[in-house]
Amino acid sequence: MARLLIRAMVLPMTGPDDFYEQGEIAIEGDRIVSVGPLGSAPTGFKPDRILNLQQDVVMPGLINTHTHAAMTLLRGYADDMPLMPWLEQKIWPFEAKMTAEDIYWGSALAVCEMIRSGTTTMVDMYLNEQETARAVLEAGTRAVLCRGMTGLDPKAASQALAENIELYQKYNDAGSGRIKVVFGPHAPYTCPTEFLKTVKQEADKLGAGLHIHVAETKAELTIIKEKYSTTPVRWLESLGFFGGHVIAAHCVYLDDEEIDIFKKYEVGVAHNPESNMKLNSGTAPITKMLAKGVTVGLGTDGTSSNNDLDMFGEMRSASFQQKLLGSSEALKAYEVLEMATVGGAKVTGFSDIGKLAPGYKADLISIDFSQPHFYPRFSIPSHLVYCARGSDVRTVMVDGKLLMEERQLLTMDQQRICEEVEKRAKRIAAEV
Prior knowledge:
Layout: E1 3-10, E2 20-28, E3 31-37, E4 49-60, E5 62-67, H1 83-95, H2 100-116, E6 119-126, H3 129-139, E7 142-149, H4 154-171, H5 174-177, E8 179-181, E9 184-185, H6 193-206, E10 210-214, H7 218-228, H8 232-238, E11 246-250, H9 256-265, E12 268-271, H10 273-278, H11 286-291, E13 296-298, H12 311-325, H13 333-348, E14 364-368, H14 380-386, E15 393-398, E16 401-405, E17 408-409, H15 414-431
Parallel strand pairs: 1-4, 5-6, 6-7, 7-8, 7-9, 10-11, 11-12, 12-13
Antiparallel strand pairs: 1-2, 2-3, 4-14, 14-15, 15-16, 16-17
């Protein structure tokens, strides 16, 4: 197996005091052997290559816990609208015209953007998700995938569920374990009781997790209240939906008791601050969740409601939003970094990513700290959250394989991807 030694400033995300201003990381194959100061590599470790990144901060790859990758095709198509009219009048009619090949190219563009901005793992929910799996496998990234399902049309619901089962059978643990497959019922207001129960049963049969939008808007609360005389979280609990691996996206409207329910069932939360702001959905009580021990990761949502996949921007927004909601001390820089790495790993269910530590996967990124906006260097975590941008990322590695070096993509043809998406998006828009 290939051996690599990286020399850089190292932020391993193993604790708030852990930082190596002059550090090194020893990698063998797809795993980290050691992390520490210069000279800490094991005696006898002879690298095949030394990667000198002394002007960079190396940290774990970022983990995007909620997106809809192929919606890059809709970037800028339907902006500045409320959620429900946005969905019903613009998004769903556009999606109805998308082919499987369109979804492949849209997913490829998303993965390309994620690599360039330091995201190495994503949780994705969409249609024709096998095409997204194809893009992930080709690019070399890591992903949790599910077929987004609604249950309002019984025939369509049955077909969608069958597709999610097929996705699991074909792609779970694909790419040497880089892909996990879960089940993706869209939301409580689009999935009736019996359909949700059926999805849960099928997921449990396979030992698969679940990914669902929960308590995203006031409108959703009203719908569920009228139908079931309760809240989305309490309704899902009454159905036995929780238990096992569940990723709940958005979670804007939770009371204290519902946060306790999430803690009880170890529900992982995918927080999407910029999407929540853009769609005027509200501000999730993240500080309360963290205080009660709920696992929270960060997500971008899709590019039609964000409009980019830059997790550095998401970190900054997450912190600022909680400060505006609470106090200037809310959601400090290192806490946000934990959400984007350690917390994201827990949410996804991958047990060996999110930190730079012996035995963990060699999923890492380097950020070019030689630039003016990183001086003076009083606090590396603060600079990463409040100053950094996706374009500052210089190096990306997943499973010990370089996906980007010196800002050059090594596994994807960026120009062709951009050209294909431009052509396909304009064709679809003309057909709607």
